TrEMBL record:
<comment type="similarity">
    <text>Belongs to the thioredoxin family.</text>
</comment>
<protein>
    <recommendedName>
        <fullName>Thioredoxin domain-containing protein</fullName>
    </recommendedName>
</protein>
<dbReference type="InterPro" id="IPR036249">
    <property type="entry name" value="Thioredoxin-like_sf"/>
</dbReference>
């Protein structure tokens, strides 16, 4: 039977179809590889999100461990240069030792039921790690034994801070997670760090 134009056209098209299909599949693979290539910003965001997830998991683990040990939120895992004092005498002894070693002292006045104090505690621990040359002393105003320290220092609101060096109060200020107040806290810590470097130079 002789081939007509229509039948020839049909054969021709059926012969080309597999090639086109392969071309389409190849193009699809290229587009897929391009579309799934993550942007550097996306990679950074995922890494930051993962770091935050791990940090939250670590904090939760520490909180559960502290609770199991009967420790309060301010008594858990603390940096080596951060101490929650138990008595006025301990505060005095630790401060004098720091002065003798040429270290600055940051006293953090807080109360157990103070939400701002609790929220700031995590940031203070990080700042303590960043400033090993400063001794961080936490004074709990909810402890009746330490109430006289609050009264003598004239502290009426928390969280409140005193920066001291050689027994002299260099600055008094309140602080929180507010960016401006955090900036002030960092500024005071840097000032104490520079003062120690100047003494040791």
């Amino acid at each position: 039977m002789p081939k007509t134009a229509a039948s020839t056209r049909g054969v021709k098209n059926s012969w080309r179809l597999p090639i086109r299909a392969r071309q389409n599949r190849a193009a699809t693979r290229v587009l897929a590889s391009v579309s799934y290539c993550p942007h550097p910003d996306a990679i950074k965001r995922r890494q930051e999100a993962e770091a935050m997830r791990q940090e939250r998991a670590r904090e939760q683990s520490e909180a559960e461990m502290s609770e199991a040990m009967g420790l309060k939120w301010w008594e858990g895992s603390l940096p080596g240069n951060m101490i929650a004092v138990a008595t006025p005498r301990e505060l005095d002894i630790l401060s004098r030792q720091a002065y003798a070693a040429g270290r600055g002292v940051l006293i953090n006045y807080f109360q157990e039921d103070c939400y701002a104090c609790r929220c700031l505690h995590k940031k203070l621990k990080q700042l303590a790690l960043d400033h090993p040359e400063v001794l961080f002393l936490k004074v709990n105003g909810s402890n009746e034994v330490l109430r006289p320290v609050f009264e003598e220092a004239g502290v009426t609101k928390v969280p409140f801070f005193h920066c001291l060096r050689d027994g002299y109060v260099l600055s008094r200020f309140s602080a929180s997670l507010n960016p401006e107040k955090l900036s002030l806290l960092r500024k005071e810590l840097l000032a104490m760090a520079r003062a120690r470097k100047a003494v040791n130079a």
